[in-house]
Amino acid sequence: MPTAKLHITLPEDVWIHQVSSTHPNAEFRVLAAFPAEETGVGLLEITSSDLPAVVRAMDDDEEIVSLEPHEASAETALVEFETTEPLLLFSVQESGLPLELPFTVQEGVAEIEITASRDRLSAFTTQLEAFGMSFDVEYVREMVDSESLLTDRQQELLDAAVEAGYYDTPRECSLTELAEEAGVAKSTASEVLHRVEEKIIKEYSEG
Q1: Rounded distance, CA 37 to CA 40, Å?
Q2: Residue 39 CB coordination number (10 Å)
């Protein structure tokens, strides 16, 4: 199942675009979001060197029905809010996708990751366009399920290699040490890991 990372440009007439563009150094991190009857309710973590001005700009916007800030520090605050224009929330609802949180918004652009079938990803991008949102795709990656791809023996040795730090940078465990720990010959460990790596790389590249 693919994971896609998107940069979504929000409509200029929506509050989050206006506020984040007016305060380009502010970061809006969406921690929670869910639909109400005709609105959306969310929890934001806002980081800004001019935090009071950002919160005031939100509070002054007509699309913000209610707002309750909880200041955590001079430059960071948690803000509960309700809005009449939760466009991303509506978009994922229409496409049947779960909204993966958190995601960030800066200067009118939301950066999100979504894991779903290609059909649902396609439906989501169609909904974005329907709501007037353009987007760029940073990447689409296939998730590899190594447990269904490998034999039990291969999976056991791979798990042992990862746990021992064989794939760390720098390497924490040599092939000789790994083979001794796993109770197999060095040549056997080398051959098994080579087959594991070959299977995973081919599966990933063909996805």
Answers
A1: 8
A2: 18
